[in-house]
């Protein structure tokens, strides 16, 4: 599945090369009402085998199945992303059936001047939006990672742990970090501990795979790595695959990453592709979107997926694990993680 996804996405990336804000992958418009979906990609772009790729896959599958035009906007930096956002508002926002999908990196672009600049049926969707309210026509998909991260922490209780983060003080990352550490610290075995390390002081940490690779070469031993670093996770995977005697384990992030390395026992899987498909399907049906909607562990939109083949391909000399260890931990702690996440959502007033 992962190889197939990447094959499709590399073709997509090739199509996007040189793409400007007005270039469109166009379907036959002759037999239907004109519709267009634009995806403003993060600066780190595609190829992370993670969240960005899953978002792109979901949007691509929808536009293909519904014969909807697709515009992919791939900025080189945040300033170019702002230009692309403003160009969409000017050229497509006033259409009666256009959607722009952005992530929270570009949330600052949205202000009251969006009001009155969106045509009937045209909308902006923010993935992982952090605001509590938006102008008319703007909605947010809010992914709560606390419960799944708590479960991942409890499942890592036998190991020293490294929480590798792109940057400090980024709300989404902080939520996941706190969830992981809360579960880990409650159940950790005697003599183990967790540390938090950062790749950068700002958002550049999301696209620093070489820095992640180098950092692990200096600090890694036999820890469980909880990665909160966007595209920089590629550097971690490369590190683990480079040395057949590597001891660290990596928790897959955002998608089922089990096919990328034999050192991934389980993944925190966010079904963002299916979530976006539901949003876009409701848009085509003319249904309204909630201003802000939260998805979480209890709904099954986020889950921990244990790699079935982890023990099959485990190095013969590595005898640190019982064969059903991670699946057993998951079954023991999942309901607790859901209950604790519900309390967290109530405190955040997201329920």
Give your account of this protein's structure:
The protein is α/β, with parallel strands linked by helices. The protein folds into two domains: 2-145 and 272-298, Response regulator (Rossmann fold); 146-270 and 301-347, 3-Layer(aba) Sandwich (Rossmann fold), CATH 3.40.50.2300. The chain contains nine helices and 13 strands. It has helices spanning 2-16, 51-66, 78-91, 146-155, 171-187, 209-219, 233-242, 272-284, 325-347, and strands at residues 36-40, 69-73, 98-103, 123-127, 138-143, 161-165, 194-198, 224-228, 249-250, 252-254, 266-270, 292-295, 302-306. Strands 2-1-3-4-5-12 form a six-stranded parallel beta sheet, sandwiched between helices. Helix 2 (51-66) packs parallel to helix 8 (272-284), helix 4 (146-155) packs parallel to helix 5 (171-187) and helix 4 (146-155) packs antiparallel against helix 9 (325-347). The protein is globular. The two termini are 34 Å apart. Mean pLDDT is 84; it is low at 1-32.
